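ESCALATION

Customer reports they have been waiting on this structure for their group meeting. Please prioritize. Original submission:
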Amino acid sequence: QFQNISKEAMAGLDKDQIKNIGKEAMGGFTKGHFEKMPKTAMAGLDKDQIKNIGKEAMSGFSKDQFQNISKEAMAGLDKDHIKNIDKAAMGGFSKDQFQNISKEAMAGLDKDHIKNIDKEAMGGFDKGHFQKMDKEAVSGFTGDQLANIEFEAMGGFNKDHLKNIEDISVSKLKKEHLENLDPDAAEGLSGGHIKNLDPDAVKGFNRKHMKRISQEALADINVEQVKNLNQGSKEGLKDSVSSFESFDISVKKELVKDKVRLLGGVGSFSEFITQRMDSDPGASDQKAESGWDLEVLNKVKNASADKGTVGSTSAEIKGIFGGDSSKGNVLEEGATSRIKAKFGKLKIFKADK
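Update from on-call: job pushed to the front of the queue and completed.
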């Protein structure tokens, strides 16, 4: 019946007339009919009427029309309805409306739908809503939108969701957001995500989170972020990382600040060389000051040291790493690779007893 009514005639409907239309009859309206209906008339719709609207007809609704639909009526939308809504019209949804939309309906959203959602409306999503969203769709989230998500709702994201969120979009997350993140989901964080996290936000990570983040991603952490990690998170980071070679030197220093260093100077040999030339390598006080293991120092006893030319601060050490002690410098041909091989096996941290 309504299929035969002209589109222009819809402009005369008001909310009371809409309210009295039978729910089964709603299937007769087309996209063109809804385009002509006054936005104020939408207030007459209830959830059963919306359930019966044809999927394709949903594209006739505008942002202003959705703003006038009651929050209770939105419960009538399913994923196919959502899928056919015009992208720009998503800006008409409010927090209260999203709270009443079913979790399953979220599967109909794509990234362009999400881009157009008002940031204030994001508070209407709960954990269950996010669980049902398509992993590609979440790439539409902006930083302002994520900042307005309810803290507990973060638990709905999985690792595939996080992999698809833009790196810069995580920059406005708060520590309470990260506290509620499923540790398994943290596996989806990339180095770009880590770089963009606010230093204060990382306070929300716990040891389980850090153990799930990949070593490649953690290599992009900066020293200000590390300073804000709690002790458990720092331990989790160390558990996750097998080699700190690609980490910034300032991060390494921060991580070993309260530990006994086995590699004195975090890569610097100058103090060690000076002590080798000026004192007994096997002395216990030298071991404590340099951080070098006594066994290593004893091996150096057999090497010869030359303070170099007058006025030079450099020194030459011969024969330490298996090279020819008759050669003029520790970095004779082949020595560099031997150094790397030996020090690559050293542990940075002394094991806790």
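Sent to customer with the following note: Residues 260-268, 307-318, 327-332 have pLDDT under 50 and may be disordered.
Escalation resolved.
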